[in-house]
Specification:
By secondary structure, this protein is mainly alpha-helical. Helices cover 76% and strands 0% of the residues. It folds into 2 domains: 14-195, Growth Hormone, Chain: A, CATH 1.20.1250.20; 197-264. Helix 1 (14-30) runs antiparallel to helix 5 (104-132).
Length: 264
């Protein structure tokens, strides 16, 4: 197997990698559920129906799940540290846009953009961390990263409720801005650049995987609202499953696969 190419080290260290990637994992995981307890306050300020409120949660989940593999592939192709910083920039900007949203449509769009940034950042936290930490200490480092993300998911509704009650619902998004702005320069200065072994993007695999994941996740997101036996939900589920089967079959024959099947 080819070794990952690396650029010259610029102040990178295992400790900095653990701190930066764990902090990034924390803020992106936090936004999965932090908005749930703020929904009544959001509706009071911005209006909208129940479906609009559902999409403030689902828009993030949908874009995050669909673009997760594509985000990792972009990092392998163009540089993981570079894309990590870009993803943080997208996530931070979208957080500010969500806090400033004048209506439900703008808030949902900002949440979708947050999911895009998170889909780039999250997989790259693991590759950057693995590249920076020696194999002997990698298990402990991944444990810290996993604990930070787990705490974020577990405490998301609690933090969201506290911020909404004591400040305002906008602060569930504003809290990301200073953290994101602080992490971007630290990432550029303290993390080492690396790339994957494949020089080209797997465009066919990207389309198949993204389309398949969109169908599956959309069906799961809309199942309760539209009915699990409804035509849109069943159609999305079966179309997504068919595209994912096509993705596996294509990856078995691709010269530069996005996800080498031999890993399984």
């Amino acid at each position: 197997m080819k070794q990952h190419s690396k650029q010259p080290v610029r102040g990178g260290s295992a400790v900095w990698a653990v701190v930066i990637t764990s902090a990034a994992g924390f803020i992106t995981a936090l936004d999965n559920l932090i908005v749930t307890t703020a929904l009544p306050s959001i509706r009071e300020d911005l209006g909208g129906g129940l479906e609009d409120l559902e999409w403030t949660v689902s828009a993030y989940t949908l874009t995050f799940a669909v673009l997760l593999m594509f985000g990792a592939s972009l990092g392998d192709r163009f540089g993981r540290r570079r894309l990590f910083a870009i993803g943080l920039g997208i996530f931070t900007t979208a957080s500010a846009a969500a806090a400033l949203a004048p209506g439900m449509g703008e808030l949902i769009a900002a949440r979708a953009a947050q999911g895009v940034g998170s889909a780039i950042v999250t997989p790259l936290t693991l590759t950057l961390l693995s590249a920076a930490v020696p194999a002997a200490r990698r298990g402990a480092a991944l444990g810290v990263w996993g604990a930070a993300s787990g705490i974020a998911v577990a405490t998301g509704p609690l933090i969201g409720g506290a911020l909404t009650e004591n400040l305002s619902w906008q602060w569930i998004f504003w809290v990301n801005v200073p953290l994101g702005l602080a992490l971007i320069p630290f990432a550029l200065l303290r993390l080492n650049e690396s790339r994957g072994p494949n020089p080209t993007l797997d465009l066919v695999g990207t389309v198949l995987a993204s389309g398949g994941l969109f169908g599956i996740v959309y069906a799961l997101v809309r199942g309760n609202a539209d009915g699990w036996s409804s035509t849109p939900v069943l159609g999305a589920f079966f179309a997504g499953a068919a595209l994912l089967v096509g993705f596996v079959l294509y990856e078995l024959r691709a010269k530069h696969p996005m996800l080498p099947m031999h890993l399984f």
